[in-house]
Amino acid sequence: MRSSTRGLAQPLAAFVTAASVVALAVSSAAPVAAAATTIATRDARPQAVAPGVALSAVARPRAVGAMRPGPPGTDRRTVGGRRLAGRGIIVSYRWHRHLRLPDIPASAWMIASANTGAVLAAKDPHGLFPPASTLKVLTAITMLPRLDPDATVLATRKAASVVPNIVGLIPGHRYRVADLFRALLLISANDAAVALVQAAGSFTRGMALLNAEAHHLQAYDVVAKQPNGLPARGQVVSAYDLALIARRALAIPAFMRYDATLSARFPVRKHQYVTLANQNYLLTQYRGGIGGKIGWTMAAEATYIGLARRNGQTLIVTVLQATPLTEITSAERLLDWGFAMRGQVHPVGVLVPPLPPPASRTRTQPHRSLAVTNSLPHGGSPGLGALVTVALGTGLAAVAWALVWRRRRAATGRHQASGPTPPR
Questions:
Q1: Annotation marks residue 123 as catalytic
Q2: For position 204, what pLDDT does the model report?
Q3: Which residue among the candidates 136, 238, 293, 369 is catalytic per the annotation?
Q4: What distance in Å separates the CA atoms of residue 54 and residue 76, rounded to the nearest whole number?
Q5: Under a CB-based contact definition with an 8 Å cutoff, are residues 7 and 406 in contact?
Q6: Which is more confident, 285 or 377?
Q7: What domains appear along the chain, each with residue ranges and CATH number?
Q8: How far apart are CA 136 and CA 308, in angstroms?
Q9: Could you confirm whether 375 is annotated as catalytic?
Q10: Of 37-41, 77-81, 337-341, 412-416, where does mean pLDDT reach its minimum?
Q11: Cα torsion through 178, 161, 134, 279, rounded to 10
């Protein structure tokens, strides 16, 4: 048994050496072909993966078309409470004398407590309206947990050709994920939104992730077709669902850091920068303002998500189809009312919690994606898959060689014991 163990030591050592080559290949492999998109998670170093290559199971959503609009036998308009199915103003005061709700020039709005989930008041909370750039909050909360902020993403023609593109991505240039999130949330960069969802492997896969995240939050009113909220047939949200999305955003520290950044510089290309100035003046002109997102298109008119905190109470306000240039002032008036009415109104509904994570999210996940390319990139340097193949092949060859060597040695020993080896 001991001689057998010693005989296996060499092949095992060779295999371990080959495994080390694999590790070095993962950590030092050059980016693959210029047409590749970098996919990186917080658990792994960036990996260059050709567009269309499948993500690991943790990021694989259910098919959007297979999703039900809500739990079986329920009406999406009653999610959060039956009273929220109403289309007018919904509020329930505790006492006869109270501070009246402000008159808000918008088709739909909601104000809710992020602490308790209580909906304080609303107008047509489940009404369906175009989201404009408020949909970028869903893009952010979907992609933030999946992308390494230090990874780079290759800007495609699709991302750079968005009109308006805002930050000015250049096709073929690589941009850090962190910079793209700042552009997305500070200046509402439409091109950055497309680049971020394409980092999922393809635009289609990225949009499937957005809709899967909305479903996970029980935001059944959401139909996302463009990650930047630009007009798309059938793309809608509700004031209630935007509040669910905003509540999730509050729970992601990285989102809050990006969203509260007042200014930053974006490197468009070497030695060329664009200054990013946060468009959400709630951060600087409203006491307790901590974040939010503005939006506007011709079809959606003005839309808004606002977040504010005072004395330990955090409020969420959402506004849809508002008169342009009134969205933030309307949000401020609703926030003032909400803070003043603490404990003086009965909740008219509740922000429902997310669904339990799917089974694939509860399993132990691989440390890094196994999706690799097995071909050489155009640059001539070996791709990650090629290096893995060579390394594993080397290890297996070493094992086979060692086994042959042991057999020959054993045969030689038998010959020596029985007499001199015959000439060859």
A1: no
A2: 98
A3: 136
A4: 32
A5: yes
A6: 285
A7: 1-32+376-417 (no CATH), 58-362 (3.40.710.10)
A8: 19
A9: no
A10: 37-41
A11: 70
How many residues does the structure list for the chain?
Answer: 424
Mean pLDDT over the full length of the chain: 77
**What Å distances lie between residue 197 and 67, 147, 181, CA to CA?**
20, 10, 11
DSSP string, 218-261: T-TT-B-SSTT----TT-BB-HHHHHHHHHHHHT-HHHHHHHH-
- Whole-model pTM: value is 0.71
- Can you state the percent helix, strand and coil of the chain, rounding each to 5? 40, 20, 40
Contact 135, 154 (CB under 8 A): no
Backbone φ, ψ for residue 208 (5° rounding): -65, -35
Q: Which amino acid is located at 382 in the chain?
A: P
Given the residues 133, 238, 330, 369, select the one marked as catalytic.
133
Catalytic residue among 113, 188, 238, 369: 188
Counting residues of the chain whose pLDDT is more than 90, the rounded percentage is: 65
CB count in 10 Å sphere of residue 247: 23
The single-letter DSSP state of residue 291 is E
Using CA atoms of 241, 245, 247, 250 in order, give the dihedral in degrees to the nearest 10. Answer: -160
Token pair 């992308």 is found at: 147
User: Rounded distance, CA 347 to CA 131, Å?
Assistant: 25
Q: What is the pLDDT of residue 96?
A: 83
Classify residue 27 by burial, with Cβ atoms within 10 Å: 0-12, 13-18, 19+.
Answer: exposed
Catalytic residue list contains 161? no
Question: Is-cis flag, bond preceding 102, omega within 30?
Answer: no
